[in-house]
Amino acid sequence: MTMSGDEVLTLEELAAYLKVSETTAYALVRSGELPGRKVGREWRFLKARVVAWLMAAGGDDMQANGVVQRDELGGEYKVEGGQEYVALWLPMTREEKAAQIARAEREGVSVSALVADYLRDWAKA
């Protein structure tokens, strides 16, 4: 006999319940942040423990430390160690990103500086 608080969720159901992608749900599980158990080759989660995790993670304002969240404008951010980090979607392809990283390694400079230069050039165009 299973009570509603003992409901078991699959990874897919967990992602739907949290309203995140399966990739995000799996990352939370792999990091050890979200309580779950592997049964055979599949992950299973007690819904009651997921709810308790959500409540403990953020309290009333749901400011989960280290978890990517969306602000009221749809932008992504996370808070780690009391510092807020805002996600920036760059107007570049994966190949362009790889080229910037390779250039930074080759020239011994900061990737951030190269990306900043790239964005300045992109904004002027």
User: Architecture of the largest domain, according to CATH?
Assistant: Orthogonal Bundle
- What Rg, in angstroms, do the CA atoms define? 19 Å
Distance between the termini: 65 Å
Q: Show unreliable segments.
A: none
DSSP strand content: 15-25%
Number of strands: 6
Order of strands across the widest beta sheet?
Answer: 1-3-2
Order of helices and strands: EHHEEHEEEHH
Helix content: 40-55%
Brief rundown of the structure:
The chain is of the alpha+beta class and 125 residues long. The chain has three domains: 58 residues, Arc Repressor Mutant, subunit A (Orthogonal Bundle), CATH 1.10.10; 28 residues, no CATH class; 31 residues, no CATH class.
Molecular structure report:
This protein has 125 residues and is of the alpha+beta class. The chain folds into three domains: 1-58, Arc Repressor Mutant, subunit A; 61-88, no CATH class; 94-124, no CATH class. The protein has helices at 11-18, 22-30, 47-58, 94-107, 111-124, and strands spanning 8-10, 37-39, 42-46, 69-70, 76-80, 83-86. The protein has a three-stranded antiparallel β-sheet. A three-stranded antiparallel β-sheet has the order 4-5-6, with no helix packed on it. β2 and β3 form a beta hairpin. The longest helix is centred in the C-terminal third of the chain and has 14 residues, at 94-107.
